[in-house]
From TrEMBL:
InterPro entries: 3'-5'_exonuclease_dom (IPR002562), 3-5_Exonuclease_domain (IPR051132), RNaseH-like_sf (IPR012337), RNaseH_sf (IPR036397). Residues 35-216 form the 3'-5' exonuclease domain. GO terms for biological process: nucleobase-containing compound metabolic process. The keyword S-adenosyl-L-methionine does not apply. This is 3'-5' exonuclease domain-containing protein. SUPFAM superfamilies: Ribonuclease H-like. GO terms for molecular function: 3'-5' exonuclease activity; nucleic acid binding. Pfam families: DNA_pol_A_exo1. Keywords: Hydrolase, Nuclease. The keyword Nuclease applies.
């Protein structure tokens, strides 16, 4: 894609190195999540560097992915977004438009001392590998973790989704409107409700994973 053709939204920033991104403060359940949305490899690498410098390993990262809904049988749309979240910092990477796959991102995902957590995270990991050749070394499914823990009795007779797990384990109430779930994740400029949705999914995954793995 010719990046010169892109029109930046009003809240999108360009720095002296032509790094393109937008910043958003997502409010959720009394928390403020500092969220960066980008299709710039340089921005991704800067975020990864900051996380590595700030947090002492081993640590947990919430991981989630989005892609355009598949309306044609047998057709699988490519992964559009990769969301990563640790504590109150979230990165939304528009992989569909990224200028190059960052080397530091490859290393981050492949670091065995970092545990990536999410619901059905194996399917996201497979999609990352199939779509972009990105390998995630250490991923844990928070649903499986919950069902193998003392929390299992809270979900007797049902298969909990992220919303159920968030409420029972982390005490977080989520709203997952279908019009956002099924929206166009391929869009070059994401809507605010898409950014909030993508951020919150990764943030909640982080909170649940931390609670289950640290038992705190």
């Amino acid at each position: 894609m010719d990046k010169a053709r892109k029109r930046l939204p009003h809240n999108r920033l360009m720095n002296s190195s032509s790094e393109a991104f937008s910043r958003h403060d997502v409010k959720f359940s009394g928390n403020l999540i500092e969220t960066t949305v980008t299709d710039s490899a340089e921005t991704v690498e800067n975020w990864v560097r900051e996380v590595r410098q700030t947090y002492q390993k081993p640590f947990f990262v919430g991981l989630d992915c989005e892609w355009k809904p598949n309306y044609i049988r047998g057709r699988c749309n490519p992964l559009a977004l990769l969301q990563l979240c640790i504590e109150n910092k979230c990165l939304i990477i528009q992989l569909l438009y990224i200028d190059r796959i960052p080397r530091l991102l490859r290393g981050f995902l492949h670091d065995s001392s970092i545990t990536f957590v999410g619901v059905e995270v194996e399917s996201d990991v497979k999609k990352l590998r199939d779509s972009y050749g990105l390998e995630c070394f250490n991923a844990r499914d928070v649903r499986k973790l919950a069902m193998d823990s003392d929390w299992a009795s809270a979900f007797t007779g049902r298969r909990p989704g992220l919303k159920d797990l968030a409420f029972e384990i982390a005490g977080l109430s989520m709203i997952k409107p279908k019009k956002v779930t099924m929206s166009n994740w391929d869009a070059l400029v994401l809507k605010e409700n898409q950014i909030e949705y993508a951020c919150i999914d990764a943030y909640v995954s982080y909170r649940i994973g931390r609670k289950l793995l640290l038992k705190d």
